[in-house]
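Table 4 source record.
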Amino acid sequence: MTLVKWIFILFFGILGTGLLVDYLAVTSGYESVGRSMEQSLDSGIIASEYISDASKGTVSLDVEKLKKTIHDEFQQNMKLDANLENDFYKNTTFIVEYKYDANGKPWIQMKLHTQVSFMFKNIISYPINAERNIAYEAVYM
């Protein structure tokens, strides 16, 4: 083989390895984002519950405390800075909403959009969009 062929083989081998590592980083990132979102939702619910009517067994949520706890727990779980970024996750948007459906049942919705990159940091980034919904209804008889 000539030197030019070896250079092309080496170049495409490095490029392929870099893309494979990025693919594995995105897959791992998506899984860790999902786990962190679920843990953050659980932590937020536990931290923000209060008994609103003990005689009826009704437990309510402090919505502001819920949102703050979810945000803080997610930031801590993912080891993100104040802008929700680190070496791998950039341009992160994070939304927590507390809504009611048509039947009056409360839902906590968490949406996250971020860009992840590992091998080619400033050249290629991959989007991760994740959303978690959890119904919250705490009435104990």
